[in-house]
Amino acid sequence: MVHRLAVEAGRTGDDGRARELADESLVVNRRIGSLRGESQSLTTLGGVSFREGDHDRAFELLERAAALADESGFVWWSIGVRLTLAEYGLRAGRLDAARAWACQGLADAGAIEDRLRTVYGLGCLAWHAAATGLAERAGTLWGAIETEESRGPIGHWEGERGEYVAQLEAVRGPEFDEGSARGRRFSLDEAVRYALDPRGGGNS
């Protein structure tokens, strides 16, 4: 409950209180030996550090949180942490690391059929493609997302997709549109396979 209060404090912009509560939660979880709880506390602390501009500390905390989630078998949380790392990496211009984190999170989300996080993973990789000038690839990934959106509400994604849309503006044009038309024909599983294809560094 202390951790949930920390999350709410961060959501409402009170990062000082969020850190205080997350630190308290971290102490308790370490005392009782809860790796899952420790992972959650570190995730919140990583978010606070990133928002405050201490990116190195944020990535350090979040990578530790992901490792603890893996160690404790907390797959659902591990996926969320890696996609958070991917988004933060994109924001901070750490593009290679962001792509690696996004691919790992997406692969795990697809494996457990987590629709929401699968879409987020595709969104991160569309953002990465746009940031690296791969217009057709960005369009293909975004087209697949739009098809999935047409199947019904996804969840938190609807409230946050606008930021992802904004990252695509620089590469919109004929190549993006061609890719988008292709991506709209993908099932979600096909989109995941395309996104994770190691040959996918190019525009094909």
Label this structure with key terms.
11 helices; Serine Threonine Protein Phosphatase 5, Tetratricopeptide repeat; 204 residues; mainly alpha
Describe this structure in words.
It contains 11 helices and no strands. It is an all-alpha fold and 204 residues long. It has 2 domains: 1-73, Serine Threonine Protein Phosphatase 5, Tetratricopeptide repeat, CATH 1.25.40.10; 85-204, no CATH class. Helix 2 (15-32) packs antiparallel against helix 3 (35-51) and helix 5 runs antiparallel to helix 6.
Note the gap between the termini. 47 Å
What portion of the residues fall into strands of 2 or more residues? under 5%
The helical percent reads over 70%
Helix vs. strand class: mainly alpha
User: What composes the largest sheet?
Assistant: none
Instruction: Please tally the helical runs, counting DSSP H or I stretches of 4 or more residues.
Output: 11
Low-confidence stretches: none
C-alpha-based Rg, rounded:
17 Å
Could you say how many structural domains there are in total? 2
Task: Specify the overall morphology.
Answer: elongated
* Overall strand count: 0
Give the overall average pLDDT: 94
How are helices and strands ordered from N to C? Answer: HHHHHHHHHHH
In brief:
With 204 residues, the protein is mainly alpha-helical. It has eleven helices and no strands.
List the topology elements:
Elements: H1 2-11, H2 15-32, H3 35-51, H4 55-71, H5 75-92, H6 95-111, H7 115-131, H8 135-150, H9 157-168, H10 174-183, H11 188-196
